[in-house]
Amino acid sequence: MNINEITLYIDGTFASIELAKIHYFRSYGNYVKLAMQKNTLVAKITTRELEDSLPEELFLRIHKSYIVNIQKIQVVTDNGILMDDQTKLPIGKTYKQYVRRVLSK
Questions:
Q1: Total domain count for the chain?
Q2: pLDDT, tens only, 50-63
Q3: Global pTM?
Q4: What is the CATH number of the domain that holds 55?
Q5: Of 3, 23, 33, 90, which residue is most buried, by most CB within 10 angstroms?
């Protein structure tokens, strides 16, 4: 398995996506939206399945609906994260201590 990419079911076919190109994932039930620099894709996978398949040193769950690429984080506040593409994402109440602990390493 290549840890630099992930293979996901997108538009009826399997596609390999470079992890470095992904800014964050947003959950939509049994689907996940991949937000990237130039485009957005939708994959058929649950957030839990996705979280289990991502390298934890590169991606961080910050909310029940969001998993972010740690390398794309620009600013962290008590309530949210500003990504390097200027997207503001919330940090869920139950994830605050976990996010603080992981990012302080």
A1: 1
A2: 999 999 999 999 99
A3: 0.93
A4: 2.40.50.1020
A5: 23
